[in-house]
Automatic annotation (TrEMBL):
Organism from which the protein derives: Singulisphaera acidiphila (strain ATCC BAA-1392 / DSM 18658 / VKM B-2454 / MOB10)
Function: Catalyzes the NADPH-dependent formation of L-aspartate-semialdehyde (L-ASA) by the reductive dephosphorylation of L-aspartyl-4-phosphate.
GO biological process, one term: threonine biosynthetic process
Record-given protein name: Aspartate-semialdehyde dehydrogenase
UniProt keyword list: Amino-acid biosynthesis, Diaminopimelate biosynthesis, Lysine biosynthesis, Methionine biosynthesis, NADP, Oxidoreductase, Threonine biosynthesis
UniProt-listed SUPFAM superfamilies: Glyceraldehyde-3-phosphate dehydrogenase-like, C-terminal domain, NAD(P)-binding Rossmann-fold domains
Gene that produces this protein: asd
Family under the similarity heading: Belongs to the aspartate-semialdehyde dehydrogenase family.
Domain Semialdehyde dehydrogenase NAD-binding: 3-118
Length: 338
């Protein structure tokens, strides 16, 4: 049984982490919930008991074995090393340590072995990367991926409670014939719109979200030769990110072979019956832990390329589920290291 702390307990991802720990019957001896001063004092119901969210302080980690953290990167940079020094292993959902060579970046369906080399912090990848690499891994093992061209259709829940509220309030105002409230979380109105910007722009014209997909994919797959060409779009969908993906492979690839590989791959569900109009939809993948693929088809011009559509719940597999799965991998290690 482990002593667990959930940091960022009042946020959109923290809320799902709390539900998942119960659903998956994580072996918890004791648990505490931590958040910023602003959210401290709110309550959380866990295992039928009501807990008060405590303020995040350096002392809060004494005696804690596993920290599941979902905070802004700046908060994680300050507190995750403190928790690790206090003897806990931190599973960190922020971008703070993802590209640190001493910090494993783990998707359990892809590189569970990397958990064992942790030094107190394990990074949880970005949501848009997680679902893509779950689908890419079996193809890479069989056909060796050279290049990936991906366009994302990302839900507002990826921007947290404020993102969800912004879509809902703008939509309600529109339906009521009122002026929509001005955007604050997003750069432009998100209701009835698509925004080709997630996170800030870098000098090369890409956004930080797009570069995360490039660098994190290579690190998780353990292959610096994979080229990723991303375009990340925010769409007016409440939950579940969708991705249109083209993979180019070293060896010729077919939809039939990909379907077979995916059918037996962990964490993946193929939904691909165009005649019956069956393909993955954000509306039907919400609240599920798997990655869904469909619209699988050959590149019309290249026998070494395949196109498909990929949908997953960004709050679950893209964040909380992946973090809890990492914690479950930790439990499989030598107990003294957890
Ligand atoms: C988003 N990828 O969807 C981010 C969340 N980590 O905004």
């Amino acid at each position: 049984m482990k002593s667990v702390a959930v940091v960022g307990a009042s946020g959109a991802v923290g809320d799902v982490m709390i539900r998942l720990l119960q659903e998956r019957k994580f072996p918890i001896g004791s648990i505490k919930f931590l958040a910023s001063e602003r959210s401290a004092g709110k309550t959380v119901v866990f295992g039928g008991k009501t807990f008060t969210i405590e303020p995040l302080t350096p002392e809060a980690f004494q005696g804690v074995d596993i920290v599941l953290s979902s905070t802004p990167a700046s908060i994680s940079r300050e507190y995750s090393p403190i928790a690790a020094r206090a003897g806990a292993v931190v599973v960190d959902n922020s971008s703070a340590f993802r590209m640190d060579p001493n910090v494993p970046l783990v998707v359990p369906e892809v590189n569970p072995q990397d958990v064992a080399r942790h030094q107190g912090i394990i990074a949880n990848p970005n949501c848009s990367t997680i679902q893509m690499v779950v689908a890419l891994k079996p193809l890479h093992d069989a056909f060796r991926i050279r290049r990936v061209i991906v366009s994302t259709y990302q839900a507002v829940s990826g921007a947290g409670q404020k993102g969800i509220h912004e879509l809902q309030s703008q939509t309600e105002a529109h339906v009521a014939g009122q002026d929509a409230p001005a955007p604050s979380k997003f750069a432009h109105p998100i209701a009835f719109n698509c925004l080709p910007q997630i996170d800030d722009f870098l000098p090369n014209g890409y956004t930080k979200e797009e570069i995360k997909m490039v660098l994190e994919t290579r690190k998780i797959m353990g292959d610096e030769s994979i080229d990723v060409c991303p375009t990340c779009i925010r769409v007016p969908v409440l939950n579940c990110h969708s991705e249109s993906i083209l993979v180019e492979t070293e060896r010729p690839i077919t939809p039939e072979a990909a379907r077979q590989l995916w059918a037996s791959a962990p964490g993946l569900v193929v939904v691909d019956d165009p005649e019956a109009r069956l393909y993955p939809l954000p509306a039907s993948c919400s609240d599920r832990d798997e990655v869904f693929v469909g619209r699988i088809r050959q590149d019309l011009h290249n026998p070494n390329a395949l196109l498909f559509w990929c949908v997953s719940d960004n709050l679950r597999k893209g964040a909380a589920t992946n973090a809890v799965q990492i914690a479950e991998e930790l439990l499989k290690l030598d107990p003294v290291r957890v």
